[in-house]
C-alpha cells in the first residue's frame, strides 16, 4: 500500500502514454483531470493485487472511444463518478475497490480521478497491461469475468447500462452507445470479487507506468540516452523484454474515424532512407512491418516515442516530419496464453501475422 | 373495465394496422404473439384511463426499429417481459399498469402480450394515437413526462438501460442501441403515475382499433363498401373526421434502411391515369402530395388500404401493382395543440408543409 499524490502524476502519465502504444487517449488531459481531483479530494491509496480482500467488490473503469475525439470533446471530469453511481444504483452493488481496465494513456488517469473522488482504494493492476481498442480485450474476459453490466456516462450526464452474456456483444452494444454519446464515453464494468481480481488481472501496471516515467526522467538528468535506459529497465520487470525496433521520420499518416475508432496506417522512414516501417493502427499500434516482415504484433507493445525525449506520441498526435524511435515491449506471460491470444492476438484484429513474442 | 380474449385480437390487429399509417410493425406477427400469450396465461383486463388510480406506476411499452426487419428477425415473444423485468430491477419501481406507447401495428399487440404474461391490467390509451417513428413523438413527452429511463431488450436476451433528461436524446441513444441489437428492440419507458397518465394520454385507442376492425368486418358481412363504413364510423369517434383521399395503383416504391428506419417514397397512380399521389415515408406515411398540393400531413393519419378488403398495407409490404384506397384520418385535439405539433408536426420531420387538420 502506498499513497499517490499529485507529485506522482507526471511520471505515471508519461509511462501510461508509453504503455498506451499509441492509444488509450491523451495522457496530458488525464494528468490534468487527476491533479484537479486530487487537489479537491486529497491523495489516493494505491494497493497491490495481493492486498485486495476476497470479499471486495471491485469494478474496473476507463473511457471508451476514439482518442482523436478527446482533443475536442474534453471530459468534464465527473463522467467516471456518474458511471460508478449509475452502476451502484442499477445493480445494487456497493463498490469497494477501483481498478483501471486499461493501463495505457488517459485510461491510467481516469481511475485515479475516480479513486480521489470516492475515497476508494485504487488497485495497482489492470486488464490489458497496455491499451487495446475493444472492451472484450481484457484478461478479465480471457479468464472468465463477465464484461456486463456495463455502466456508461458522457460529459453531459447521459447514462446507459448494458447487460449481455458475451463480452464481444457488450463491446458491440456499448460501442454503439459510445458513438451516440459523441464518440467518447466513460465506463464502469467487469465487476468482480477480490479473489477473482487477484487471479485475472495484470499486476503492478500503475507502478510500471510510474517507473517508466521515472527512468526516463532520471536518464535525462544523468544525460543518458532515455530509450536505452528504458530498454534496460523494462528487461528487469515482469514484462521481461523490450527492444528498439527502429528509428526514423514520420513520412506518411493515413487516419480516419471509422465505426467509433481511429484507424489507419503510419509510415516511418529510417534516416538512412532504407525501407520504411509501416504501422497499422486501430486506436492503438497493432502491427509493424518492414518489407513484408512482421517486426512486432499484438499483443506485444509497439510504442512510437519522440527521438529526443522518449515521450510517447499517441496516434492522434502523429504528424508528418516527427523524428521517432520505435520501441517494442513483450507482454507478460498472463497475456501470452492461448486463451489470451484468442482474445487479443493478431487474429482478433483480422491480422494474418503469427504472434511471436519479442525476444523469444 | 372489460376482458380481452383471443377472440378480440382479429379486430384489434386489423384496426391497429389502420392506425399504424403504414408503420408500427406487422400486426399479423403481433396477433400471433398476443394469441400465444393469452393461450398460455389467460385473458387480459383492459381498463379505461379514468379507472387508473392516482398512485399507479404505469409504464408504456412497444418495439423500436424498422418494420421491415420484423419480417426476418421474428420476435421471441419474451423481449417485452425481459425489458419490463430489467426496468423493475434497475429502477426499483414496481409496475402496476401497462400502456401501449403506440396504438399502431405490432405495437398495439406487444402490450397485450406483456399484460397477459404479467397479469397486470392494460390501459385503453396510448401516447401517439397512431404510429410515429421516433420515441420523443409521444403526447407523454409533449405534456411533460420524462422519456427515460428506457429499458430495452432484444430476442437474444441482451438488455440496455438509458437515462437522460431529454426525450430526443433518449431517442438518439436508444436508436443507436436498437441498431446494435439488430435493428429491432423492445422498450419499456415513460414511467409515470396514474394521475399523470390520465392527463397526458390519447384515450381509448385500443377500443378504437378494435372498433375499426369490427366495422370493416360487419361491412363485409352486410356487403357494404368497407372504406365508406369506416369513414362514417370514424366521424363518430373522438378523432372526429376521416375521408377517402384517393384511389389507385402502386406504380413505384423506393424504400431503403437508413439510420435505423425504413425511409422512401411511394407513388400511387389513379385509375384514370391522372396525376399520381406521392407519399413520403419514414416507417410511417408522413405526407401525401399531388401536383405540389399537400393533401394530408402528419400528425393526421395517411392510411394505404387494400381496395377490396380495406386492410391496411404497412410500408414494408407495399408492392408494385397493388390496388389501394388512401384514407385520411384527423387526429384528436390533444394531438393538435401547438406543443404537440412542435413534437410531431411537419417541422419535426423536416417537412416544409404546413399542418392543416383534415376536414377543418
Can you characterise this structure?
The structure is a homodimer of 360-residue chains. In chain A, strands 15-14-13-12-11-17-16 form a 7-stranded antiparallel β-sheet. A 5-stranded mixed β-sheet of chain A has the order 4-3-9-7-8. In chain A, a hairpin with a 1-residue loop joins β13 and β14 (284-290). Chain A has 2 domains: 2-203, CV3147-like domain (CV3147-like fold, 3-Layer(aba) Sandwich), CATH 3.40.1610; 225-349, Beta Barrel (CV3147-like), CATH 2.40.390.10. The first copy, chain A, has helices at 6-19, 27-41, 67-70, 79-91, 106-118, 139-142, 167-180, 194-200, 205-221, 226-234, 338-344, and strands at residues 2-4, 44-47, 57-65, 97-100, 122-123, 125-126, 150-153, 159-163, 184-193, 202-203, 242-258, 261-269, 277-282, 284-290, 293-297, 301-306, 323-329. Chain A is α+β, with helices and mostly antiparallel strands and 360 residues long. The mean pLDDT of chain A is 95. In chain A, α1 packs antiparallel against α5 (106-118) and α1 packs across α9 (205-221). Chain A contains 11 helices and 17 strands. The relative contact order of chain A is 0.16. At the A-B interface, α4, β8 and α7 of A face α4, β8 and α7 of B. β8 of chain A pairs antiparallel with β8 (159-163) of chain B.
Secondary structure category of chain A: alpha+beta
Give the biggest sheet of chain A. Answer: 7 strands, antiparallel
Q: How many distinct helices of chain A? A: 11
CATH class of the largest domain in chain A: Alpha Beta
> What characteristic shape of chain A results from the CA principal axes?
globular
Q: What proportion of the residues of chain A form beta strands (DSSP E)?
A: 25-35%
Radius of gyration of chain A: 19 Å
* Fourth-level CATH superfamily of the largest domain in chain A: CV3147-like domain
User: What's the CATH architecture name of the largest domain in chain A?
Assistant: 3-Layer(aba) Sandwich
Helix % of chain A is: 25-40%
Q: List the strand order in the largest sheet of chain A.
A: 15-14-13-12-11-17-16
CATH topology grouping of the largest domain in chain A: CV3147-like fold
Quaternary structure state of the chains depicted: homodimer
Q: Which protein chains make the most extensive interface, counting residues with beta carbons within 8 Å of the other chain's beta carbons? A: A-B, 22 and 22 residues
Amino acid at each position: 500500500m502506498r499513497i499517490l499524490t499529485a507529485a506522482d502524476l507526471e511520471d505515471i502519465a508519461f509511462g501510461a502514454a508509453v504503455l498506451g502504444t499509441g492509444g488509450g487517449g491523451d495522457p496530458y488531459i488525464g494528468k490534468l483531470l487527476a491533479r484537479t481531483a486530487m487537489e479537491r479530494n486529497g491523495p489516493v491509496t494505491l494497493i497491490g493485487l495481493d492486498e485486495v480482500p476476497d470479499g471486495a467488490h471491485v469494478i474496473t473503469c476507463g473511457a471508451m472511444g476514439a482518442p482523436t475525439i478527446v482533443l475536442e470533446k474534453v471530459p468534464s471530469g465527473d463522467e467516471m463518478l456518474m458511471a460508478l453511481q449509475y452502476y451502484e444504483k442499477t445493480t445494487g452493488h456497493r463498490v469497494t475497490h477501483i481498478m483501471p481496465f486499461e493501463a495505457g494513456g488517459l485510461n491510467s488517469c481516469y481511475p485515479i480521478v475516480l479513486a480521489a473522488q470516492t475515497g476508494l482504494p485504487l488497485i495497482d493492476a489492470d486488464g490489458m497491461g497496455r491499451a487495446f481498442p475493444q472492451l472484450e480485450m481484457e484478461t478479465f474476459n480471457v479468464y472468465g469475468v463477465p464484461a456486463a453490466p456495463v455502466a456508461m456516462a458522457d460529459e453531459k450526464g447521459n447514462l446507459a447500462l448494458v447487460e449481455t452474456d458475451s463480452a464481444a456483444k457488450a463491446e458491440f452494444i456499448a460501442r454503439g452507445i459510445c458513438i451516440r454519446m459523441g464518440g467518447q464515453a466513460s465506463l464502469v464494468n467487469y465487476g468482480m470479487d477480490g479473489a477473482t481480481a487477484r487471479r485475472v488481472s495484470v499486476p503492478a501496471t500503475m507502478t510500471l507506468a510510474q517507473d517508466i516515467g521515472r527512468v526516463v526522467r532520471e536518464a535525462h538528468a544523468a544525460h543518458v540516452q532515455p530509450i536505452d535506459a528504458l530498454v534496460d529497465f523494462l528487461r528487469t520487470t515482469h514484462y521481461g523484454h523490450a527492444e528498439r525496433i527502429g528509428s526514423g521520420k514520420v513520412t506518411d499518416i493515413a487516419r480516419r474515424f471509422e465505426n467509433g475508432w481511429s484507424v489507419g496506417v503510419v509510415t516511418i522512414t529510417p534516416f538512412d532512407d532504407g525501407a520504411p516501417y509501416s504501422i497499422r493502427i486501430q486506436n492503438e499500434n497493432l502491427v509493424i512491418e518492414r518489407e513484408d516482415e512482421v517486426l512486432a504484433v499484438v499483443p506485444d507493445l509497439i510504442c512510437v516515442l519522440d527521438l529526443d525525449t522518449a515521450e510517447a506520441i499517441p496516434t492522434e498526435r502523429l504528424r508528418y516530419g516527427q523524428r521517432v524511435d520505435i520501441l517494442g515491449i513483450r507482454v507478460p506471460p498472463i497475456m501470452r496464453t492461448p486463451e489470451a491470444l484468442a482474445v487479443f492476438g493478431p487474429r482478433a484484429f483480422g491480422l494474418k501475422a503469427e504472434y511471436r513474442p519479442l525476444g523469444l
